[in-house]
Predict the 3D structure of the following.
Amino acid sequence: MIGFSRLPSEDLPKIYKQNNFVGFDAWTVQEIQNAQRDQEEGLFFNPGLLAQWMLRDGRLASVMDTRIMGILGNELNVSVEAEGEMSELISSSLEERWFDILPEGVQHEIMTWSILCGYAVAQIEWIDTGGLGVIRWMPKIKVWHPSWIRYDEWRRVWLAQTMTGEKVITPGDGRWALFLPYGDFGYRRAKLLSLAIPVLVRSFSWIDWSDFNDTLAHAVKLAIVPSGADKDTDNTSTGTPAKTTYLNNVKNLGRTTDTLIVEKNTDNSGFGYDIVEASGQGRESFAEAQEKASLEIAIGILGQNLTTEISRGGSFAAEKGHESVRQDIKEFDNEFFSTAVRAQITKPLVEFNFGEQHKVPWIKYNVSPPDNLSQEAKTMADLSIAVEGINRILPADKKVDVDALLTKFGVPTIEVDDAE
């Protein structure tokens, strides 16, 4: 029976409910600039709405998924800091239940707000499973929308806007978890500050491009009528002027009613019809605006834009999906996330279930780049040719130290019995 030195109890801060989410349909340049100023001052209501709106953009949402899933899609590693049966039990239990403790969707949401807003806040509710299994007290993680958080720079405290008023957030108290990838004032480096305008440019260019294409698709119809057509009838019982009948017929040509221009000929040569098509080179400017904004977004989130900057058949990294994210960024995200989770979620979980005297394991994703086996094989082949050539030109009493080279390049060897 495992003894508990500390249990989730009434001395923990109570559970609070956040306010209902409020969406925002459209943004202007001035509104974005106002929200960015609020962000830098620690007032996050409008910046949180801006971040939510930015995720409607397909390009931004895609590169955010690429960056985050470039971590979450890797193998999970649990490292034991102490030896012994209990340490092994703690590590194996955490590894087995990790995605119940911290589901992938929760991890994705935490990382999303951490990157876009420079912070993420989660509230922890401890659920008593009734002693079933090794882990009795399971955390239920509830990520708060960034709009309901603010930072009081004068008091140096983080605050959550609950349905019963503002409450102080105390990171690591067993109830709150605060994720700050760029430090205490990292919200001033939030990606929404640099990428909101490129997202707006993409939004505007899509709308303007669609309007432009709509104009090109609807040609102007030019109807030519005799100068006296206003008086002539169309020989029907209604007595409708021939001009009116003709113009109605022209308008009904095709699936849509386009702009109609009437021109009278002076020689009374009869009725006529022509098409005046719209023309222009605006499509190039829309495409360029889209491309530039998309490039800015990709570089801002991924640190690079391999899909366009590396030609086909180029570097090994370009051929691997997860290598779209710059390696140092991937390692940074992994380290920051695992450190924050260990201190604010895993540590109280170990204390509540196993006792505070035990070491807390590190839980990280393996984000090391994969081995390029084809390149390694080519290197070995080139090396063997080089060794053979060097041996030919060396003096008879010298030769290349092959064992040293094999050790340097990590090539495993075995002892072979001469009898074999």
